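Hi support team,

I submitted a single chain yesterday and got back a structure, but I'm not sure I'm reading the token output correctly. Could someone confirm the output below corresponds to the sequence I sent? I've pasted both exactly as they appear in my results page.

Thanks,
R.
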Amino acid sequence: MTLQHLKVAIVCDWLTVNGGAEKVILAIHQLFPSAPIFTSLYNPQKVRGFQNAKVHTSFLQKIPFAKNHHQFVLPLMPLAFESMNLDEFDIVISSSHSCAKGIITKPKTLHICYCHTPMRYAWDNHNEYISQYKMNFIAKKLGNRMMHHLRMWDRLAAERVDAYCTNSHFVQKRIQKYYRKTSDVIHPPVNLDRFAIEKGEKDYYLAIGRLTPYKKFATIVEAFNILEKPLVIVGTGVEEKYLKSKAKKNIIFLGHAADADIPTIYANAKALVFPQVEDFGITPLESMASGRPVIAYKEGGALETIKEGITGIFFKEQTAVGIIAAVHEFERNYKEFSPDRIREHAKKFSLTSFNTKFLDYVEDMWRQHQKKSAD
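Hi R., thanks for writing in. Yes, this is the structure output for that exact sequence:
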């Protein structure tokens, strides 16, 4: 039986912000356009590309503030996903960095999880998550207790998955450590057609993403306050007001940029500054698809996408001093970076490559599932 004749469903944590996980979900949706999408929360005003999809939301959608503040309903997420009825489907594909993998399926159903990461705020980043977010003492105490219970549920939920694939070898090791599960690596896609090399003087550095503590935008601002070089920051988030209060006049905040403007913003940047530890990191590849190099912290998924001296440079200290030293090094070697060579490297992570690998993986897992069922 081919995949075209099977009933497929897609499950994802939430569709409320545009990020790397959402781009993977969109790619999977385009591979299976007739498959309904089940998610906890959906905000079509903020997430584009799913207007033709049949999206089913959980009871959390009825909570007035939840679409814009999903973190406040996190304790209810396990119940939301366990309440979803997926009995009629042959294959369920979950895209999960939180609770989506916790769906309950029938034995006949193949559950494939594209795991972006084991829930980082419940596992290796839980202390940092609680300490960095602005909460009062009582909220922090309750947060620690909630994370303990969420961690136990997450480990149990991990057993419900039949097959794991993931975005990087970095996350593959984390899945093995926390879930004791093997996984296959299928790198996320970059839609190269959106991006292009543009000629002209590049006069600013770029940082792009959600303005949250773990993305280390405060470290970027601190560094560029000292460097006094032009920096453009694209994105919104909980730290936006704080960052603006600390930034000097050489730092410009664009807020939420329209999708149509993003390629030009990348193409006209001198380089992307990327100081966070990401499980994979789509933004460096979008920068490289635009022919622009990346200045990145030497950790996480960046090690799998950036070729030092060819598509960017690394710094070893996740500090303002580390960024400043890297920018100075980059300035000295700026002319050695070839936009054409940088873009050529990005092609290895194309949407076409992802589509082929992911479809082959689903077909292979289905064959294995059928064989086990027959035994």
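A quick pointer for reading it: The longest helix spans residues 351-374. Let us know if anything else looks off.

Best,
Support desk
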